[in-house]
Amino acid sequence: MAAGLPRRIIKETQRLMAEPVPGISAVPDESNARYFHVVVAGPEGSPFEGGVFKLELFLPEEYPMSAPKVRFMTKIYHPNIDKLGRICLDILKDKWSPALQIRTVLLSIQALLSAPNPDDPLANDVAELWKVNEMEAIRIAREWTRTYAMGN
Amino acid sequence: MFSGAVRLFFVSAMNGLHYTLFLRLPRWLHGRAPPPALRSGVGSEDGINSAGLSTVTDKYVLDTLAVIRTLVDNDQEPPPSMLKLHTIADKEAGWLVVVRSMVQVIPLHDPLGPAVITLLLDDCPLPSKETVVHLCKFFELSEESAQESWKDPQLHRNICVVLGCIAEKLAGPASIALLTDTTLEYLVAHLNVDNHPCVILFALIALEKFAQTSENKTSIGQYMGQGLCNPLRTLEQWMSDNDYVRRQVGFCAQWCLDNLFICEGRPYSYENVDTTHLNAMLNNNDVSEYLKISPDGLQARCDASSFESVRCTFQVDSGVWYYEATIITAGVMQIGWATKDSKFLNHEGYGIGDDEFSVAYDGCRQLFWHNAQSESHLHPSWQPGDVLGSLLDLTNAEVIFYLNGDPLPPLTQVFNNATCGFFAAASFMSFQQCEFNFGKKPFMHPPKDIAFQSFNDHAYLKESEKIILPRHIKLQKLRAMSVEEGACTLCFDERATISLMPCLHRGFCERCALQLEICPMCRRDIEERREVDEKSDGKSEIT
Q1: Backbone phi, then psi, for B190, in 5-degree steps?
Q2: A73 CB-contact burial (10 Å; exposed 0-12 / middle 13-18 / buried 19+)
Q3: Alpha-carbon span B481 to B159, nearest angstrom
Q4: Angstrom distances, CA of residue A4 to CA of B115, B287, B423, B471, B529
């Protein structure tokens, strides 16, 4: 942090607080304004419905020229999210643009929960099951949601 | 380096399209857990029967601890013992076995012990709330057991490290659930001056990590009390104790009182600290985000699991310069010199000595670092109380490190990439601390055969620049900053004066536009960045 907190981050934080995204809460850490505690509600109609998923989001030194780093802290059964909570999402990698924001990133992650993409997997075993037996995969995803993402 | 490079190695071995996101993950040895693809096939068929599991796990934990300091190369495989532990911890029951083993066998005085606990827990899957509750029952936490902790300080120190680590990993509702009255009583009961200082230290750090969740912060603050009966008020007096563990307790107690558990009527330390004749200090605006700096600007400490770095305020461009650092903890720190081009990639495990613009001494693993490459040196491992001397000779283009006055051969490589603009700088692994002397006090072991200058004799700081504000006050001030109209839509710092050609999107300042190759709005290639009349309309907005 060569020169304190960039205005871009301050401005985004203010807007996130003033106009929160439905189904998502993102709160900056009290001791580190680049670190956000994020909670995403499982989207309706998805196997994650009813679950509350905790994520962490970190704005690296080069932000917004490089993408935020985001990770699921709550266990989730999803073909594009691995055991360590890492997320496979193009806008977090080669399709990042500095015009995107924390808000748009979180909306994209919410959308990824609604529409898993087993053809571009990060968790290979999950993706495999999702392709050969989608019903069973969805059943496990519901079960994991109940076990890890409810009642905490 | 704290092995961020190893992580990058594994990432590149995976499918390049998969973005691996690590955030506050291991840092040193991070990513030493191989990607899931490499891990498949290990599991229950591993042949470990549950009866002998504890014994085997104990051995893996000790093996990991023994081997960890030898791991420095980027392309090194994780040690087999560590892979085994990850396999075991993959299931909830196994996770409990691993945690129990760590608590029971990690020795009290290994300087890397607590960091290894943090490291191993960091890469394991997150435990469920039930598992954590089960763990607390197993530990039999209570105020009474804490009062008996002198009987087995190793066990209680390790329990505190584990609790702190889990509190940090599960920050939020689960951390609130974990901080039951019993857990709180147990941790606070440790904060007694008669206890083993190692146990006090990690009980305090655990409380700090619980306090990352604000409900916990409130309940801990209330439980400890506002007045002088607050145990931290006594412990902060150990700030300059002769015992180095007690000194760490003093540092952490003072930091907590200034930053987390504010006591009415107690002035902030920065309001009382004597900064006369202080002309050079650690730069509170040139530091990675989790490093703690003392109110006098001369001590730094890391309790995060990232590899935290800081530079000094004073830049040197010519001549011969010397400073000293008193080692307070004997773990991994990389202390030396860096220019402003040197980046603090704390989450990736890169620090001072891990790029071409810096050079550092690592007295734990007995290495020099430059450009993320290490080289052994002949000094013994440093111990608390040792004094590292660091000499930068820009006339002859060499750097010399001394341990308690004993010099090592000069280093010259860094001068191929930088010849001026150097700062004293250092990086810290978890739970490491040292105290700098930039010349305000007499040096302990000044080099005798060479004339040198000290920063403090040549630098100058305004009174306002000497203030190290507590974090919450600093953040409040930053948030109060206003944002101007017509500012760049990317950084909000500069005026938006550039239009991108051929797509004509605008709303960017020159500095941002020069960093772009494609338009942030439409992703078209940028052929030209054209200055426009900022008063004309058509400003693009980010939405």
Answers
A1: -70, -20
A2: buried
A3: 42
A4: 28, 9, 18, 12, 28
Nearest-by-Cβ selection for B18 from A67, A88, A148: A88
Strands (E), B104-155: none
Min Cα–Cα distance to chain B from A97, Å: 5
Q: Indicate whether B358 and B394 sit together in one domain.
A: yes
CATH code, domain carrying B535: 3.30.40.10
Number of domains in chain A: 1
Q: Does A37 reside within a domain? A: yes
Phi, psi of B412 (to 5 degrees): -130, -15
- Asked if this assembly's ipTM is beyond 0.90, the reply is no
CB pair distance less than 8 Å for B24 and A58: yes
- Give the list of residues 6+ apart from residue B251 with CB closer than 8 angstroms, or none: B239, B292, B294, B299, B301, B433
Domain boundary among B471, B498, B516: B471
Q: Is residue B526 part of a domain?
A: yes
Give the whole-angstrom CA distance, residue A112 versus residue A125.
18
Among B449, B471, B493, the domain-final residue is B471
Is the separation of the CB atoms in B395 and B320 below 8 Å?
Answer: yes
- Do A128 and A30 contact (CB within 8 A), yes or no? no
Q: Which CATH number do you get for residue A43?
A: 3.10.110.10
> Is residue A79 reached through a cis peptide bond, with omega within 30 degrees of 0 on the bond before it?
no
- B228-279 pLDDT, tens per residue? 789 999 999 999 999 999 999 999 999 999 999 999 889 999 999 999 999 9
Question: Cα–Cα distance between B507 and B518 in angstroms, integer?
Answer: 14
Distance, in Å, from the CA atom of B200 to the CA atom of B153, rounded to the nearest integer, reads 10
Structural domain boundaries, residue B290:
282-471
Q: Does B259 touch chain A (CB under 8 A)?
A: yes
Determine, yes or no, domain membership for A2.
no
Number of domains within chain B: 3
CA distance A135 to chain B (A): 23
Whether the full predicted model's pTM is greater than 0.80, yes or no, is no
Residue A1 lies in a domain: no
CB A90 within 8 A of CB A80: no
Which distant-in-sequence residues (6+ apart) come within 8 Å of B448 by Cβ? none
Q: In this structure, what token pair is assigned to residue B478? A: 């930053």
Q: What is the pLDDT of residue B6?
A: 33
**Chain A neighbours among B 497-516 (CB < 8 Å)?**
512, 515-516
Instruction: Please tell me which residue in A16, A38, A40, A88 is annotated as part of the active site.
Output: A88
pLDDT of residue B223: 94
> A4, A125, A104: which is closest to A57 by C-alpha?
A104
User: In A, which residues are within 8 Å of B542 by CB distance?
Assistant: 99, 101
pLDDT, one tens digit per residue, over B274-313 is 999 999 999 998 999 899 999 999 999 999 988 999 999 9
Range of the domain at A48: 7-149
- The answer as to whether A104 is a domain residue is yes
How far is Cα B212 from Cα A27, in angstroms, rounded to an integer? 12
Residue B532 pairs in a beta bridge with none
What amino acid occupies position B237?
A: Q
In a shared domain, residues B69 and B108: yes
Q: What is the CATH number of the domain that holds B422?
A: 2.60.120.920
Q: Catalytic: A88?
A: yes
If asked whether residues B402 and B506 sit together in one domain, one would say no
